[in-house]
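Input (structure):
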């Protein structure tokens, strides 16, 4: 029997690549339900699917923000059976919080957090009854470490991490695994959408010093990071499949080794001051971009690991 994998947000980026990679599995072990909010955007996926379309890859409509859409999609699946759920749909937001309305902030949570929770709630009873299943979340390193001007996005991913960390323990009792895939920057439409949004904003309500720092320091540094350290969506798809195929899937999987120091800092200093001050000093006292700060962090944590001060396991 094929393993039924339902993926959200497959019209572009990581979701699209993951659907294609799984559908092309040489042993044809996956029956992929590649879902998207708007079926008018299915051309790219259809073209990439080639011969797998309607064989190992099936396209369905699913808006993670709609109860009706989730119910309708699950009802269209044979026995409503989902063996592996990949909560990939997500939206980003960058910029000074003074210029973001609460409504805008809530919409990030509606998609990134409640969207994922909505589908988990819908598939869980059946997974529990069968005592098998795997819930895979497309989280982020920003689910573990906040990053300047990504306040609300990071909060939505933190929320997902806290939710899943709690749920994972209960679900293990039912032989259901939960895994968080935690990429650093990935070169998809995601970043372009973010840049596009801020290029049209005047940042109302934000002081000029903050706006200037955001535009003149953060944005160029962020572009540079995506260009130099960004991974491809294919790499994230492969990493996700590695986790999917594990006999006992891990709870956390960071895809970009350059980013592991970001999170290791937290565990090395439980006051939290080390990471906050390190970022502060690197950004504001030396005007250095994130890339250099990450390289420094990497050297620091590698030496911790080597000295045995911090264990990578
Ligand atoms: P993307 O913008 O190409 O993909 C996101 C997808 O989610 C899009 O297809 C979009 O249409 C879909 N989506 C948004 N709202 C939806 C809704 N209500 N219902 C259904 N689908 C919806 O970007 P991506 O980089 O492929 O992002 C995929 C996931 O990876 C996101 O959860 C994102 O937070 C996460 N992630 C991305 C990066 C990055 O740098 N690109 C890094 C870490 C994590």
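Output (sequence):
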């Amino acid at each position: 029997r094929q393993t039924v994998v339902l993926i959200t947000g497959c019209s572009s980026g990581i979701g699209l690549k993951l659907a294609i990679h799984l559908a092309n599995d040489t042993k044809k072990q996956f029956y992929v339900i590649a879902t998207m909010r708007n079926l008018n955007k299915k051309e790219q996926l259809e073209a990439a699917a080639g011969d797998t379309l309607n064989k190992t890859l099936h396209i369905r409509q699913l808006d993670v923000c709609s109860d009706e859409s989730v119910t309708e999609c699950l009802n269209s699946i044979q026995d409503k059976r989902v063996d592996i759920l990949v909560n990939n749909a997500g939206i980003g937001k960058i910029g000074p919080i003074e210029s973001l309305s609460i409504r805008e902030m809530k919409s990030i949570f509606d998609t990134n957090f409640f969207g994922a929770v909505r589908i988990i709630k819908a598939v869980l009873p059946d997974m529990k009854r069968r005592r098998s299943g795997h819930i895979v979340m497309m989280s982020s390193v920003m689910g573990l470490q906040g990053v300047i001007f990504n306040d609300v996005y990071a909060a939505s991913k933190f929320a997902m991490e806290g939710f899943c960390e709690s749920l994972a323990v209960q679900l293990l009792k039912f032989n259901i695994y939960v895994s968080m895939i935690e990429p650093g920057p990935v070169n998809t439409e995601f970043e372009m959408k973010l840049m596009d949004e801020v290029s049209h904003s005047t940042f109302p309500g934000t002081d000029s010093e903050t706006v200037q720092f955001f535009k003149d320091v953060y944005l160029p540094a962020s572009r540079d990071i995506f260009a130099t350290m960004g991974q491809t969506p294919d790499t994230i798809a492969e990493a996700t499949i590695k986790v999917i195929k594990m006999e006992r899937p891990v709870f956390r999987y960071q895809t970009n080794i350059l980013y592991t120091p970001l999170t290791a800092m937290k565990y090395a200093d439980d006051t939290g001051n080390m990471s906050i001050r390190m970022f502060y000093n690197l950004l504001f006292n030396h005007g250095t971009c994130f890339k250099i700060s990450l390289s420094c962090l990497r050297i620091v944590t590698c030496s911790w690991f080597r000295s045995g001060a911090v264990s990578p396991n």
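Notes: The beta strands are 3-7, 30-36, 57-61, 84-87, 133-138, 176-182, 252-254. Residues 140 and 182 are 4 Å apart (CA to CA).
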